[in-house]
Amino acid sequence: MKYVSTRSQTDLGSFCDVLLSGLAPDGGLAMPAFIPTFSAAELEALRGLSYPDLAYAVMRPFISDIPEADLRALLHATYRAEVFGSPDITPLTPLGESGLYLLELSNGPSLAFKDMAMQFMGHAFEYVLEKRDQRVNILGATSGDTGSAAEYAMLGKARVNVFMLSPQGRMSAFQQAQMYSLNEPNIFNIAIEGVFDDCQDLVKEVNADAEFKAKYHIGAVNSINWGRVLAQAVYYFRAYFALGLPADAEADFSVPSGNFGNVFAGYLAKRMGLPVGQLIVASNENDVLHEFFTTGSYHVRPAARVAVTSSPSMDIGKASNFERYLYLIAGADAVQTAGWWDEVGAGRPVELRDTAHWPEIQSSGFRAGKSTHADRLATIRRVDEQFGRLIDPHTADGVLAGEGFRRSGVPMVCLETALPAKFEETVREAVGRVPERPTRFVGIESKERFCDVLPNDAAALKAYLAAKLG
Ligand SMILES: Cc1ncc(COP(=O)(O)O)c(C=O)c1O
Ligand SMILES: N[C@@H](CCOP(=O)(O)O)C(=O)O
């Protein structure tokens, strides 16, 4: 499989190339030259596969440059019960008889869904770097969960350093402690005076400097990296088969969304032929995506207008993977996509309602819901009382949005994107008690912190990286 840029159709090479490069040189995102599809019979043959074997079947069509035995070995090394808590890897739990299901994606090392793909990225980077005798310096941006998932996945990896940018003071106490308490030679935490979007823009700006990127071997682990999106598509297949539906019957999915990586992975699964009906994009008060799917206007929020909320990992005003979606909606028209992203870059809205693209957008299965802090508290409380299940504030956003789009006889799978332990303050406010946390995280907030603070400035960041990398 060849990959191209969303903005120019430039040939970006094969999977291992885009894994290491992360972003396209023109600032676009890597996309496969086409999306392979499964026939109904091929889909049926995937039922009952173990998680790593299913991952192989779903990912293989996009990865032609790793030999079969090696890819299978990587996936079996990644998706193990010892890492994800059970042989199921992503258990699917019904919420009573409601027709709602929780897809448990947060039983990995950092207690958030990011582990699902990031653990694969750790193994894949190690494998490719070894083969090519190279090193990579990952520059990432986090609003709370990507950071710790990446750091845990790359911990101790000889050929990898992680430089993780986080928005200063805007993550939960647990999230901050989880990242900043790491004191490892290959992990560098950097708190940026800004919001997540500033961190993400810095990552893109540094990557756009071709000379700097090449000199310092800069790579990416955010969902701007195709490897993340691809590995995330697998659990949609897994959940679908776990429902035990007859062939062709649809399932709906509700996805707490921010950077549009998770729900885009669901869309990828749908485009590959999985009978996904609706994809509910659940937003918090930062409702840029909700605005698009209800009005057709994609208008990113400047940093000053990104609200601080109680589902902080979704405090995003500019959704990176939305570019991949609009590229597909435009029929893989890179010139059109580049034009739209010029508008986005200039802070102007992209208006699609009265264009030929709107019917395609409306029929692509996306629906949108949004919640407030009060909604989140009420949902956490209600799910706890009704179903005896404690959920985190992001998952609550997803459950509430999903409930709003129920279709008779169609299951609604709500993605559990983090464990409640990561957001103790909000959960306590909702139910008056503190969620259990794994013993390895007890008292983490009082540990010493290792984190540098930098201004929101690419030159300062480059100087920092150059100094650390020599
Ligand atoms: C707990 C949690 N829920 C939801 C999201 C939003 O997911 P995405 O950015 O893939 O849309 C994130 C961060 O990305 C997260 O950490
Ligand atoms: N919500 C994320 C933000 C980055 O998302 P990604 O999926 O693009 O890495 C976080 O928690 O860090």
UniProtKB/TrEMBL annotation:
Domain Threonine synthase N-terminal, first and last residues per copy: 2-79
Catalytic reaction list: O-phospho-L-homoserine + H2O = L-threonine + phosphate
Source organism phylogeny: Bacteria, Thermotogati, Deinococcota, Deinococci, Deinococcales
Cofactor entry: pyridoxal 5'-phosphate
Modified residues (N6-(pyridoxal phosphate)lysine): K114
Family affiliation: Belongs to the threonine synthase family.
Protein name, per record: Threonine synthase
Record GO biological process: threonine biosynthetic process
Organism domain of life: Bacteria
Keywords: Amino-acid biosynthesis, Lyase, Pyridoxal phosphate, Threonine biosynthesis
GO terms for MF: pyridoxal phosphate binding; threonine synthase activity
Domain Tryptophan synthase beta chain-like PALP: 90-317
Pathway(s) where this gene product acts: Amino-acid biosynthesis; L-threonine biosynthesis; L-threonine from L-aspartate: step 5/5
Gene3D superfamilies to which the protein is assigned, alphabetical: 3.40.50.1100, Threonine synthase, N-terminal domain (3.90.1380.10)
Class of this enzyme: lyase
EC assignment: 4.2.3.1
